[in-house]
């Protein structure tokens, strides 16, 4: 008898799946009903779900689980599907429901579903029949397609067999060929290895003979040429041995990437069926080659040691030939970039260590202590304590030791730089015999910079670092090297001079090589301190000169002192083209300070230019002292252009020019006042009666009153005014300013005397006496240097007494301006004078002639002759023609159009 679970399982055999069948109408769902599959519409399924058939449409429906759930009184399934909703009071939710009731419900449900299926089939029977016919027709076509596909598979299998067999045969042959070639290559390499090993043995034997002293070397009469030949043979032997060692090493290690001959011959496949040999067998695994390894390594060590010894000897002696041979050996050993890098590093380390010890106070102290504690006897000696700073007593010894160490440092730096330049030159000259590429190009592939750049960069960095540390940590270093910066710079100039022979080192005002820039940048701390001290010395000299203010103004001594300090500072820096420029800038600033302080003392009020007398005013005395200081300062500095470079001289000359302008600002207003005063006195000539009759019984009359006043004023200016200006105004008439006063007085007097009218015989005698008095008053200052003006004064006296017809003669009017002769012709005639025609005073007319050209003055005279006739008019016109003819002869010929 069957169990209840089996009854339920046999009764319920409905399985509804959600999966749609490919090719069916969309929206149909397959329903399995007692072994048959029916495709139901979604509406039918919805109807089924409304009848509480949701447990049967789940995808993982299991009959046994469903029966067990009914027997246990539990719901099935545990979760609700999307096709059904649980209803309250359903039979499946009650655990006490009777099994028979459940089975009856199932039967009723099956019957209901069967009726619905039958109704559905009846409704769609035409479509189902049409589908059945289509499927029957399609099955025949599918049978023929299947048959064709089977034929294709059989053909392809036969074709695959035809290709697979030759392919595998070819693959096996190719592998065998590659292995044969590899074996052949290995044998060839072994053969080459043996030949090279024997050659290396021969070369090393020959190399060993060079190390033993031969009979020829022991013979004192042996020539140096034989020794040189042997040395050349040794270098060539070492280079050849290095090349052989490199080739042996290449054979031992094998190529890094052997050709994938087999892999390149075969087409790409998804996987490798057989392994291939991707690399040659290394000779280190061959016993015949391994036996030579100790000998090769020993030869490599010997050649490397000899190469390094040759390089060090070549760098020490600067032997280009030896250095080139050693570099060729390094190139043959394939260690040239590494060797150059190591040499550069060694040189950098040596320079850095030497710089560190030079600026190490403890090293200087130990050196001095060791010298002091040398025992003079076998007795006990006192060992002084090591100091890190010198005392006032030991400062000279410390300073001397420091300068000695600096000079030694520069010598060693120069030696290192010359070595690296020699090495770099040899690298540039040597070329690879195969590629014709210079060794320096191969080295630059590994190094970032050239060896010289690397060494100089390290030198500058080390020098700057230790100089900065020494300056911060020691007052002794700071004071000694800043005060003695020119000496320090001279020491490094020796470095520049030594390396300039081996490289294109340039150190001028307009161009500096990178090497010099590196050194100067490292020493910039001391340069700044030195320039600061230099500026302080210049400013102190200026401050001391003007310390007294207006109560004790600076004079000639102070001006000379300032100029001497300036020249000393410039002389200290003249050897360096850049330092002299920096000092010249400080000098310019100091001279500006002199000008500023001088302008603060200069008096510009009316009392500074008054000439009332009898003594100079305090303002004139003050201005005279300041002008004297400025005069001696700028006159002593005028030689800068001759002794220093053009750029430095330009900077200093700008300040000197400003000094000169300040001096002119003091002196020129005073000279202008003197000219006005003297011209005012000379103009009093026209107040003298020069036409009175001559008394034959009277002797020669004395000078006129105005001439006495003029002589007194000249003497006052000379003794009271000019004495305060201990400069070009108190020397002689040869100086420009004093000479300008003398010439002005003479010229002004002659012009006034030439227009004095009416003029009688007594007046001529009086003018002659006044001229002699004026000449006497001016002669104390060297009147002969007045030149044309002095000749004009001497020629004026005979002009007064010659006959009228001779006035136009060039010989009688020599050394006299044509305007003076014209004036005298008009004085003798009844023609009006030019100033009378224009209504001017005599002083105004004379001043006008001084301010205008002589052609303009001739025009005034000619205008006075318009419409006039007579002997004097003809004479005047003749003089005008002669004057203009001479003026045209002096002018250059006109340019052709």
TrEMBL record:
Keywords: Golgi apparatus, Membrane. Residues 283-496 form the Conserved oligomeric Golgi complex subunit 5 helical domain. Its main location: Golgi. One of its GO terms (biological process) is intra-Golgi vesicle-mediated transport. It comes from the Eukaryota. Pfam families: COG5_C, COG5_N. One of its GO terms (cellular component) is Golgi transport complex. It is found in: Golgi apparatus membrane. PANTHER family: CONSERVED OLIGOMERIC GOLGI COMPLEX COMPONENT 5, CONSERVED OLIGOMERIC GOLGI COMPLEX SUBUNIT 5. This is Conserved oligomeric Golgi complex subunit 5. It comes from Suillus discolor.
